[in-house]
Design goal:
about 130 residues, Globin-like, about 70% helix
Length: about 130
Amino acid sequence: MGRRVLPDIQSRPQVRALVERFYLKLLTDDRLAPFFDSPEAVFERLPLVSAYWDQLLLQQGSYRRHTMEIHAAIDRRRPFEAADFSRWLELFERTVDELYQGRLAERAKRLARRVADHMAGRVGLAE
């Protein structure tokens, strides 16, 4: 029984599918779901999150916001712990592996590690 061959990330619709599946995991995760106001608010922001990942992975899109400001506001309401970033990264990498494989899929996971490390450092959780 061979391993299923998955496509690599190549398009904005594929990035959107990754982001949507990932956020569905976040919204049902015991550790991370409490950080979100409501599922409706999350789904309203998904186009922005997709634009962020489009910019990082495909160098396409028009994302111009600074993600740290958004996460600093969340941290003020409910402080992040190091385990939150570890769990976020675990779910992101799992989601990528469920959908894609290849050069950009691996790049997505590397970028996610950098994003998690950067965010943790900015809220005072750097190791």
